[in-house]
Amino acid sequence: MKKLHAKRLMKLAHFLLTVPDEMFGFATIVKGEKTPRKEMDCGSTACALGWCPVLWPKLVRYERAYGLSSYDVHPRKEDPTAFMSYFNGTANLLFGLTNTEPIGLFVAGHQYEMGLPELTHQATPKQVADNIARYVQRQHPDIEFPFA
Predict the structure, then answer these.
(1) Angle between the 3-16 and 125-139 helix axes, to the nearest 10 degrees?
(2) Burial of residue 124 (number of CB atoms within 10 Å: 0-12, 13-18, 19+)
């Protein structure tokens, strides 16, 4: 993992420590009528990837999910020839993750594939942040994180 990607992942982990539990949902990218904002007053819930446009608005954007009161996150400049979902495309663009790594970090029940503590759909933002930080520090131990 490149240092740029590691620092972005760690920035996301630090940010997740500020997200109230009631505004975090590990089961959906973004659920609600409004997109998340730094002020955390939108009333929607978002997973770790769902908060990324708040942190990197020039790189990724929200897009209404088809016919639902929810949103997905897409790279601003999508490659129409790339065979990647918006989920993997966003994770690859921001964090340099391969096709399987985003699932281990951002999807409940798949952490064992990454050698991380298993998380359920009820995971808190702090639990997800801790897993992200553990993953980053395996490759870049010089990047610090405030573990509890």
Answers:
(1) 160
(2) middle
According to the model, what pLDDT value does residue 79 have?
59
Chunked into runs of 10 residues, the chain (148 residues) has average pLDDT values of 93 94 85 74 79 91 74 74 65 87 88 89 93 93 77
d(CA 120, CA 130): 14
DSSP string covering 14-28:
HHHTTS-GGGB-TT-
pLDDT of residue 68: 66
Helices (H) and strands (E) in the chain, counts: 5, 4
Per-residue b or e along 35-48, where b marks 16 or more CB atoms closer than 10 Å to that residue's CB: bbeeeeebebbbbb
